Please model this.
Amino acid sequence: MAQKREKFGGQMAVILAMAGSAIGLGNIWRFPYMVGEHGGAAFVIVYVLATLLISLPVFLAEVMIGRRSHTNARDAFARLSRHHPFWKGAGYLTILIPTLIACYYSVIGGWSVEYFVKSCGLAFVNTTPEAASGLFGTFVSSTWTPVIMHLVFLGATVLVVAGGVKAGIEKFSKITLPVLFVLILLILCYSVSLPGAGEGVRYLLHPDWSELTPRTFAYAMGQSFYSLSLGMGAIITYGSYVSKKENILATSTGTAVSDLLFAILAGFAIMPAVFAAGIEPGAGPGLIFQSIPYVFAKMGVTLPLVSSVVSIVFFLAIIVAAMTSCISLVEVGVSFLMERAGMSRGRACLILYVICGVFGVLCSLSFGPLSGVKILGMSIFDLFDWVCSNILLLLMALLVVVFVGFILPRRVVHDEFTNRGTLPFNDRIFPLVWFLLRYVAPVAIVVIFLTNFIL
Ligand code: PFF
Model:
């Protein structure tokens, strides 16, 4: 318990690590298909507003809890509530949720490893839409390869976490995040230069307001929470490594803007290519794994080498993005085991590898040999995703805003937000942030929750 806690080394390091957590499969895999399903630009506009007005204040709240308590996510609630039994219990959720997510998140991480390997082996060169979707179906429903790829992906993730906060997490994000932006820009340039890509660009720029239903608002907010890694203990944990000197408004806004920018870049990288290949934009979760190989194959008819290289770069980008996010999920449990159970970092990493490995294997097998196992009518994988994204994430986010808005004294929140009154700009906008946190965010979270269930 008395170990010295590590810290991130400066503002840029904080932004890169937090953006590493935020930018992930949610941006490259989920955001484009949601835009495709929910009215293109109309969804993007709602998404941007939701991020700035609701998610950003919640993000700030999580960073404040972490930095103020200077401990792991479970103990943060206990410490700041002076060991109130309710909040002590609630704190356990912050360890449970990211660990559950890491189980299935690393399964999709494993898929990207497999697709990267396949691209290197030029497996998509002459594929057709039917072949690409057949290949995806055969792969995910097989027993061994997805399981092995999941374990490889998780192993690599855990190894970075084992390196520690500074030498592992911070260093990895510092190198990979800028590379990731360059990779996605390269793909974007290629994608918008394709014949027929203009249609995709137009789709992203022209709002179809008729698609805007209450459900769309709920999805946009849910997606924004997920994308910023909220309600999962990850930002609380990273916040606990932020020094008292940092301006958390600057680091949080930097992270939210990078995440937004990346999601939009990913939209412009993927949608034009999807339109150029004549694929349905609302193809759903399989969009990148089923359509993108065909997109590259189609383009490859004229330029096989270029399209193969772009496809390798694309799946590499997904691996990197997924890893920096999965790292933040695993770190939540690791910091808890280190501080609560006095374990070494290595041992805590090993335990998380085993837990997430075993449950991840079950999630992976639920596409194949265990596809007959249904709980509440859902496969194991879908159950994990549904419980985490639609229930636990929102519940935790609500607990966070109630905790900061109503349990912590206003003075404490003000101190954290303004570094004890030394940041004049933060001081000026504090009333707005306080209002958004206390009144707007809780109502919005409850509305998303009800919309998910009722509509
Ligand atoms: N924000 C990540 C993404 O957009 O892919 C997913 C994620 C990572 C969620 C870490 C939660 C978390 F704690």
